[in-house]
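Continuing the series of single-chain predictions for the mutant panel. This is the parent chain; the variants come on the following pages.
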Amino acid sequence: MMLLSRRSLILGSLALGACSRVPPSPEGPLRPIRLEDAFVGRSTGSGVFRVTLTGSERRFRADLDGRLEGDRLTVVEDFFYDDGEENTLTWVFDRAGPGRWTGRRDDTVGEAEVVETGTEIRLSYTADFESEGEVTRLGFEDVIYYGPEGQVINDAVVTRWGLPVGTVRFEITRLAG
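Parent structure:
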């Protein structure tokens, strides 16, 4: 398996400049979703980060633990990559009004913007992505929604210098208990 590299991200960004920078809304009848409903409690998931131009992938799984205290939602994410790398990142979201949140994670640059639209959640942020000792600044435009079996699905378009370079698909299942 090829690992993501700065070169593949740069080449992908140059070739994909005309592609969409936001994921499309999911199709089909969807259940309503709110940030706290999707992430409070314990859950686990698996995903893949794919460089669009080269097709190279980096697969991962993650364990999530979310708790809501008043208008603050904290979600701890423990990531385990197929190449053996591991890391823990923590989101802290603060309610900013009806259907709106702001958030920060250990690797974000500035604040994330979160908008709940009823059947989907839009999350927009910039992060310094660390892999194999290198840091790459990436933009993320996520759409989060319930899948047909009740799993939380997070689809994202990843950008570098404002140009799309890849996608992420992350499917999360709530743990019993």
